[in-house]
Each structure stands twice: as structure tokens, then as C-alpha cells.
Automatic annotation (TrEMBL):
This is ATP-binding protein. It comes from the Bacteria. Residues 3-206 form the ATPase domain. It holds the Pfam family DUF234. Residues 313-409 form the DUF234 domain. Signal peptide: none annotated. One of its GO terms (molecular function) is ATP binding. SUPFAM superfamilies: P-loop containing nucleoside triphosphate hydrolases, Restriction endonuclease-like.
Amino acid sequence: MRFIGRQHELAVIRQKLASNRSESLLVYGRRRVGKSELVKEALKDVADDSIVIHYVCRKSSFAQNMSGLSQAAAKAFDEPFIKFEGIDQLLRYVYGKATRQKVVLFIDEYPFLRGDNEAIDSEFQIAIDEWQHESCLKLILCGSYMDTMQKLVDSSAPLFGRFTEIMKLKPFDYYDAAQFFPARTNEEKMLLYSVFGGIPFYLMQLDDNLSPVENIQRLLIPEGAMLENEIRLQLTAELSKEENANYVLENIARGVGRYSDIAREFSGSSGKLSHTLGKLEGMGLIAKDSPINASSNKRQHRYIICDNLLDFYYTFLFRETTARSAMSSEAFFLKKVEEDLNNSYLPRKFEQVAAEYLVRQNRAGNIEPPFSAIGRYVYNDKARRKNGEFDVVTQDEKGYISYECKYRKEPLGLKVVHEEEWQAKELGLNFYGFGFFSRSGFTNDVDAEAYKLIDLDDMYK
């Protein structure tokens, strides 16, 4: 399969591999996000006279991993096997070889080698400090265990300041995810991304010969389905209490996002809840969402699920084990998923995709003036004694622009435009501009010169 996306990251790694100096790279991110494939794709362009040592660490003892790493080094240099007892001995050997030619040492799944022994980090730090100016070794440490890998860049960590490139890979956004199924209609692309998210491995499981709904019915709905198992592996790899994570994710999926509300029925201590939230946030599965105009107001903070696959699973499937085992996948989808998917879930995801579109355009220099922040905008309607929010608002040097998102089958008309403006005026909000996202385009009476108008086709151009 062709390599998809990550062109910026690929260019950065290729540049580091081509330089005439020692480099130390850290590439990390959650399971299945494509770390190893990215590095291996970059290694395809390594010069013919370079030596590449690639070793994937196993979930086994340090001694067994050192034996495997020793064998990989011997094979790369076409030399008799030398069993290195410690990582310091192997690094001295490899760095010494790199004084005469370029050498790449790619250690994948580094946390399995390191374990809980931080002294191993120190051995790498000592070797880098001693040899970086005398050799041309390209050291690449790659790993999935987020907690371990993030600790490597802490200011108190031995390897702090030693990496010449730190790359934390994130899931694809809606646009890059669509490259996995380019022949689909834009509505199908939107649906598939809303359900399966942006993890490359998940997207590779989709069958082009099946409809989006049939893929959902095959990969997610059956009890013990492949991607359900992936979700469990993702959680158990980093968390000791899966049930705590299930409680948190289920509550967030049904709209319970404030810490106090999540804590209300949590069976454990507040310390355990904070630990679980912190772990899930560190893994990139949830995020603390703050309003663009009230970021310091903790009462307005809420947690959201960042991963669409998890969001779909905990919204529709997690509590339906009995129904999923008793019903066919087709019947379950029709009875338990279809209506809410179309009426509430997809409209919510359309707002997410609209924000991702704006961020892409902003980074590409296509928005003037460029905005410095994007998020929801909260307000207090004192006259009607209620609070509310605008879901997608940007802030730039001139002020705020509000974007209304409508995921409807019919085109968006002037009535909706006027309602949005009127509401903002009645509330006394200082939006200096308005934009509109529409699934099905706009009626002819909406002035494209007066408003920023974006339909689904625009978002996938």
C-alpha cells in the first residue's frame, strides 16, 4: 500500500538522515498511529553507503532485548556475533563504527528495552554527549507507551536537551484520513472519519467494496469485533484499571464533561479519577476543552473525547453488549444507531471537521488576518436567564468571527444567516464577521461577499 500523509514529518526525518552530523531523534505517539511506518519510509532514501540497524524491542527481559539488538548490529555490519551485556557497550561499538561512515540505529518500541530502569536513559545520554561531535550516528528512538516516552523529554530526564528532533505523531485530521478512501463521495468520507477517526491502522481495515454502514457493521458492531479489541488494547497498554477508563469515557461520550459531574458517581477516590483523566489526556484520547473567551474560568472547562472511534464506541456500543450479541449487526444498526447517528452524532462531528478545516486553511496562509485561537464561545443571556455557546469561533487581531455549522440535507438559507446575526446582536456579542458551514450548500439569496460560506465539497478540495 502506498504511503499516505505525513509529508512534513517525512521531510524532516529525511533531512536529519542526510546531514553530515550525529542526530538523535525521538518519534512517539499512541498505538497504531504510524510511527514505525513513517521511519521505515524515510529509511528508504538512506544513502547506499549507510549502515542501518533496525531492531524492534520485545516485551521480554532486558537481557533478551540486548541479545536481539546485538544480533541486529552484527548482521548490519556483517561481522561475527558479539553479545553486548549492557547498552553502554553496544552504543560505544556503534558510535565507533559511525566515525568512519554513516550509521542509523533505529530502536523501535524503546519502552520494552528500557522498562522502569531510567539508568538506561542515562547510558544513551552519556554516549550522545561523548560521541556526537566525533561520529555520524543517526539514533532514532521510537515508542508507543506514551507515559514512558513523554518522560524522556521532561526537564529532569537524563535525555532532556539531547534530541535534535522530537516528533509526537497525532492521528490524521479529516482531510488526510480521506486519502485512504479517495473514491468515496464527500459525505461518505465525512461519515467514515466521524466513526473511525484518523488512526492509519484503523482506516486500513476499511473495505472499499463495502458501504460505510457495512464497514461499521463488520468492524465494530459484533461483540468482540476487531476494532473493539483494538480499543481495549489501547486502554490496557497504559492503564491498570480499565473499568475506570470505561466509566470516564462513557460519561464524556454522553455529554458529561465537567470534572464535578464526572466525579459525582465515580466509585473510586478523587485521586484515582484525576489519575485516570491525566492518563487518558496524556494518551491523546481526551482533552480539556476551554472556551475561547473564558479560558481561565474553570467552571467552563469540560473534557471531550479526541478520538472519533472511541467517541462512537462509547456513544453507541459500550453499554449494548447484550443487544449486540442477540441481534444481527444490520438490525442493531437500524434500531440502536442509525437515528441518533444522523440526527445528533454526525452534526456534532461536522462542527469538529469545520474547525479542522479552518485550522488547515489558517496554517496554509489562506485566512487573512490569520487567527490565533479557535474554539467555542460561551455567553450568559441574562434576559432569558440561560447560558449558551457558539460552537466554532475564531479570534484574530480584529476580534471574533463566528461560524455556524448545519449538517442538513437541504441548502442553508438566508433565514438561518439572519437568525445567527440577530442572536449575536441581541446578546451584545462583538463578532465582527460571520461564516457558515453547510453540508448541502446554500440558497441563492445568501450573499457570498458578505459572509464566509463553505460547503462539504469546499472542505475536501
